[in-house]
Amino acid sequence: MIFLYRALHQIRNACTDQGILAGTIDADNYRRIWARDGIVGGLAGILSGDKIIIEGLGNTLSTLWKARDQKLGTIPSNVDPSGEQVSFGSLVGRVDATTWFLVGAAQYIIQSNDLSGLEFLQKDIKKEFQLLRAWEFNGKHLIYTPMSGNWADEYPYHGYLLYDNLLYFWATSLWGELLNDHELKLKAHNIKTAILINFWMTPDLLSKAYHKGLYERNLEDQPPYFISGFHPGGIFKRFDAAGNALALMLGFFSKDQLSLFQKFLTELWTIEEFSGFIPAFWPIIDQHDEDWPAIAHNYNYQFKNQPHHFHNGGIWPVWMGLTALGLRMNGLTAEADTIKERYEAFLIAEDFAFSEYIDSQSFTGKGQKPLTYSASGFVFCSSNHFSNLITK
Predict the structure, then answer these.
(1) N or C: which end of the chain has fewer CB within 10 A?
(2) pLDDT tens digit sequence for 204-244
(3) Whole-angstrom distance between the N-terminal and C-terminal Cα of the chain?
(4) pTM for this prediction
């Protein structure tokens, strides 16, 4: 219980009247209300039934909503607690700020069982979905994310991404049920169908594929997990922990796919010697990889993506925790326990610093610390009360 207590204590410490801070440290804008960090922290509060954190989620939603783009409806990436500085992304906007907001708002209303609890949302919520549909660009049910357009803002992937489109599905599904809106329910169905067809390639689905030529050329090399994304000029087959964690949670894995994924984890933990850890993206991009120039130049202030670090093979506890939660939801409790026990051992070793990420060579904590994201990760990987979180 000490582990859960320390994790929840860290998230509570980040709760303010304006919302949940990404971190209590005053460095690199972490002492701000970030859309994804605040919502993820709030979901950890919902899972654990923590009233202080759930209240922090409500404050987060209110702050983000007040700071949104009034004409378009875009939710900011982060807001200074004073409200004086609002960021929609530096080099490019963040697609997942809006989708995480919609997920968090729906969860907050459902959990409070009070449809009037966020009345300020009711009038304009449809504008948010109009915005998301505009980001499809062609009405084919998948959002197109620009490079640096989500949490992995220094990772060189872009296009139709698994992570962003699963958030799109989750948000649309939740609000379709909440509002009993037939149009949103149908949209959620169409998004799910598009994801199932395009992110796990099989011969019988080739005729329905978004990019048939690309799909056909890669059919024989489908990995044992949902691919991270594709675009008109190529495909990203590297493992994306965040995307596959959401796929597990949202019920996208078939029985056969779960078996393949289970084998993938076993090999990751034995052959790659990760022993319960899960990297954010894998395998790494090194100097000999064709993607190296793209990752080497994709940063604003300093280069963080050396192999095994940050997004480039770094282990992010938040996604590791959501993977464990998704595994439990699919009956794979042994694998979920392996993740939990590995993270517990790491937390003891680093004296509960809740580091941003873990170096996948030395297995030491790196980045900023302590972070709400990483504390939330432990809540996720230890939770057996996943019915508190509405996923479908």
Answers:
(1) N
(2) 999 999 999 999 999 999 999 999 999 999 999 999 999 99
(3) 29
(4) 0.97
pLDDT tens-digit profile of 32-79?
Answer: 999 999 999 999 999 999 999 999 999 999 999 999 999 999 999 999
For strand 86-87 and strand 160-161, is the pairing parallel, antiparallel, or unpaired? unpaired
Mean pLDDT across 13-28:
90
Q: Do residues 14 and 372 touch, judged by C-beta distance below 8 A? A: yes
Which uninterrupted H or E stretch holds 160?
strand 160-161
Strand partners, 282: 239
For residue 6, give the nearest of 346, 368, 241, 325 by alpha carbon: 346
CB 308 within 8 A of CB 314: yes
**Alpha-carbon distances of 293 from 287, 302, 305, rounded to whole Å:** 8, 15, 12
Radius of gyration, alpha carbons of the chain: 19
Give the containing element (helix H, strand E) for 70: none
Which of 216, 218, 220 shows the shortest CA–CA distance to 207? Answer: 216
Q: Is the pLDDT of residue 115 over 70?
A: no
CB contact set of 184 (below 8 Å; sequence gap of 6+): 129, 172, 173, 175, 176
Question: For residue range 270-325, what is the model confidence (pLDDT) as tens digits?
Answer: 999 999 999 999 999 999 999 999 999 999 889 999 999 999 999 999 999 999 99
Distances (CA, A) of 88 to 76, 248, 298, 332: 4, 29, 18, 38
Edge to edge, what strands does the sheet with 33-34 contain?
33-34, 78-79, 86-87
Question: By three-state DSSP, how is residue 64 classified?
Answer: helix
Q: Using CA atoms in the order 33, 110, 246, 267, what is the torsion angle rounded to 10 degrees?
A: 110
- Set out the domains of the chain in order of their start, with CATH numbers: 95-110+124-388 (1.50.10)
H or E element that contains 345? helix 333-349
CB atoms within 10 A of CB 144: 20
- Determine phi and psi for 178, rounding to 5 degrees: -60, -40
pLDDT of residue 116: 63
